[in-house]
C-alpha cells in the first residue's frame, strides 16, 4: 500500500489512526497521526453527516472532501473502503486541484505519488506551464524594454538629450486637450550660425549641449524643454502663468546664455532671444496659433536688439516687421 497508495491512512475499528502512507508523513510528523482519532486530525467537509466511526463506514465508496484540522489546513480528496482484516477502514487520499498549494507548502516530489496517479502528469504540466510563463514574461519584459527604448529615442533629440519636435507637439496637444494652464516660450540662439561658420560644427554641437544644460537647470521637472530646430528651443511651463515669474526665468536664461563657451582652445559667444505666450490669454487654445504667436513675440525680441524677452500681445501685429523674420535672423 505504501507503494501503490502512498497517501493512504488506516483507521482501526475504534476510530484511531494506526497507519499512514509515506507521503502523508511529509504533511505532518508521525506523532500527529498515529494513535489519534480520525476526527481529531481531519475535518470531514463533505459529506458532513458522518461524525462517528459507524457514520464513516456508511460512506463506503463515496467521494470525501476533507481538511487537516491544524495549520496549514490542506484540502484533501479521498475514497473510503473497508479493510480486508478487522472492522477498520482504509482511506486513499489525494490533493486534487489543491496540488499547486501543496507543492508550495510541502517538500513533495514525483516519488511521493503513485506511478499511475494523474497528479504526476499534472506536476509535469505545472512545471511546463511555469517554464512557458517565465519564458513569456522574460520575452514580454524584453519587448517592453525595446518598445520603451524605441519610443524614448523617437521623442528625444540625440545631440542634446532634450525632447524633440515630435515630443513637444504631443505634450502641447495633451495640455490643450486637458485644458491645463501653461506658458510657452520660443527661444532662438543669436549668433549661432557665426559659431558654426567660423569654428565648425563641433563647436556648434558643444554650444547646443551647453544651452541644453542651462535650459534644464532653469526649469522644473514638470516642465518641458525641447529642441525643435537647429538652434531653436521650445519650453513649456506646466501650470505657470505668472508674468513676473516667467520674466525672471527668461532673464536668468538669457544672462546665462551670454556666458562664453570654451571649445578646443577657443571661445564661443552667443545670446538668446525669447518670445512667450500664456494659455490663459486665449479663449480657445490652438497649438498652431500658440506657436505662431510665440514666434511673433520672438521676432519682436530680435528686433529689439536680441538677448531680449517679449510677451505676445496683439499690439505686436500692428508692426509689420514682426510678421516675418527680422533681417539677419537666418544668420541668427
From TrEMBL:
SMART domains documented for this protein: GGDEF (SM00267)
Cited Gene3D superfamilies: 3.30.70.270, Haem NO binding associated domain
Signal peptide span: none
Taxonomic lineage: Bacteria, Pseudomonadati, Pseudomonadota, Alphaproteobacteria, Rhodobacterales
PANTHER family: DIGUANYLATE CYCLASE DGCT-RELATED, GGDEF DOMAIN-CONTAINING PROTEIN
PROSITE patterns named in the record: GGDEF
Name by which UniProt lists this protein: GGDEF domain-containing protein
Transmembrane segments: none
Annotated ranges, domain GGDEF: 180-314
Organism in which the protein naturally occurs: Litorivita pollutaquae
Amino acid at each position: 500500500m505504501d507503494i501503490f497508495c502512498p497517501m493512504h491512512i488506516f483507521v482501526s475499528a475504534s476510530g484511531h489512526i494506526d497507519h499512514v502512507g509515506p507521503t502523508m508523513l511529509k504533511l505532518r510528523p508521525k506523532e500527529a497521526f498515529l494513535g489519534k482519532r480520525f476526527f481529531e486530525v481531519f475535518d470531514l467537509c463533505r459529506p458532513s453527516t458522518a461524525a462517528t466511526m459507524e457514520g464513516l463506514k456508511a460512506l463506503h465508496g463515496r467521494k470525501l472532501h476533507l481538511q487537516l484540522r491544524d495549520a496549514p489546513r490542506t484540502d484533501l480528496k479521498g475514497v473510503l473502503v473497508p479493510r480486508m482484516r478487522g472492522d477498520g477502514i482504509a482511506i486513499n487520499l489525494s490533493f486534487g486541484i489543491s496540488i499547486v498549494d501543496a507543492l508550495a507548502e510541502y517538500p513533495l516530489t514525483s516519488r511521493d505519488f503513485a506511478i499511475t496517479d494523474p497528479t504526476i502528469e499534472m506536476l509535469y504540466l505545472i512545471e511546463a506551464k511555469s517554464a512557458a510563463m517565465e519564458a513569456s514574461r522574460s520575452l514580454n519584459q524584453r519587448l517592453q524594454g525595446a518598445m520603451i527604448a524605441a519610443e524614448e529615442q523617437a521623442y528625444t533629440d540625440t545631440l542634446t538629450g532634450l525632447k524633440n519636435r515630435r515630443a513637444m507637439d504631443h505634450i502641447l496637444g495633451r495640455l490643450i486637450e486637458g485644458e491645463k494652464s501653461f506658458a510657452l516660450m520660443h527661444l532662438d540662439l543669436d549668433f549661432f550660425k557665426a559659431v558654426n561658420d567660423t569654428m565648425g560644427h563641433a563647436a556648434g554641437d558643444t554650444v547646443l549641449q551647453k544651452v541644453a544644460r542651462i535650459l534644464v537647470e532653469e526649469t522644473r521637472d514638470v516642465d518641458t524643454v525641447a529642441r525643435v530646430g537647429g538652434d531653436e528651443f521650445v519650453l513649456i511651463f506646466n501650470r505657470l502663468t505668472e508674468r513676473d515669474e516667467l520674466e525672471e526665468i527668461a532673464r536668468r536664461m538669457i544672462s546665462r546664455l551670454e556666458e562664453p563657451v570654451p571649445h578646443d582652445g577657443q571661445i564661443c559667444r552667443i545670446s538668446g532671444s525669447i518670445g512667450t505666450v500664456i494659455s490663459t490669454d486665449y479663449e480657445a487654445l490652438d497649438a498652431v496659433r500658440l506657436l505662431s504667436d510665440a514666434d511673433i513675440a520672438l521676432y519682436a525680441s530680435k528686433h529689439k536688439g536680441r538677448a531680449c524677452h517679449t510677451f505676445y500681445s496683439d499690439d505686436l501685429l500692428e508692426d509689420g516687421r514682426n510678421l516675418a523674420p527680422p533681417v539677419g535672423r537666418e544668420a541668427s
